[in-house]
Amino acid sequence: MIKNAISRPNELFIGVEVYLNGIAKVLESILDFGLKNIMLSNLNSFYFLEAMPHKSIDKIFLINPDPWVKKRHHKRRLMSYEILSLLNKITKSKNSIYMTTDSSDYLRDTVSLLNEYKDSFGTFTSSILKKNDELYGISKYQRKALENGGKIYLLTL
Ligand SMILES: C[S@@+](CC[C@H](N)C(=O)[O-])C[C@H]1O[C@@H](n2cnc3c(N)ncnc32)[C@H](O)[C@@H]1O
């Protein structure tokens, strides 16, 4: 987000993260680079998305949301019918929601969810990111997964 905000000064970037230390780290970079085009929220993303107006966002990046691998924790996952409905409502056009994950299970379950609600959310694409893809290795969790020999999957919807 910092890199994008530097190279696109006329666009507004909004970061949403509940982990306060994460917010503090981004704030440091905002100050270091004197950035004026970033807003941060530490709201639970569900409430943030709920508060955003209809068709107000150009692009949404969900970068490696917690995969909650244990079945009993699946209900904590970000990708749900409710979140997908909100994402759909606030984006201006199709193919503007990008989710990356290093968890093949999370990818599979999200694909199942999207297939189940195809009538509501329309089509989507999924791929494995390659080194020269824009979203490859852009975050700490992605880099950790890649160092451990993992893959980064991308869903675009
Ligand atoms: C697996 S980490 C990924 C962090 C970072 N995106 C990366 O790829 O390095 C998931 C992050 O999502 C945040 N998170 C979890 N649930 C959230 C929610 N409901 N709203 C906002 N952030 C959330 C956590 O605090 C955590 O920092």
How do the helices and strands line up, and which of them pair or pack?
Blueprint: H1 2-7, E1 13-16, H2 20-33, E2 38-41, H3 45-51, E3 60-63, H4 81-90, E4 97-101, H5 104-116, H6 118-121, E5 125-128, H7 140-147, E6 153-156
Parallel strand pairs: 1-2, 3-4
Antiparallel strand pairs: 4-6, 5-6
Bound molecules: S-adenosylmethionine.
The site of S-adenosylmethionine has 16 residues, from α3 and α7.
Short description:
The protein has 157 residues and is an alpha/beta fold. It has seven helices and six strands. The radius of gyration is 16 Å and the shape is globular.
Description:
The chain is of the alpha/beta class and 157 residues long. It is built from seven helices and six strands. It is 39% helix and 16% strand. The chain folds into two domains: 1-42, no CATH class; 57-156, Rossmann fold. A four-stranded mixed sheet has the order 3-4-6-5, with helices on one face. Strands 1-2 form a two-stranded parallel sheet.
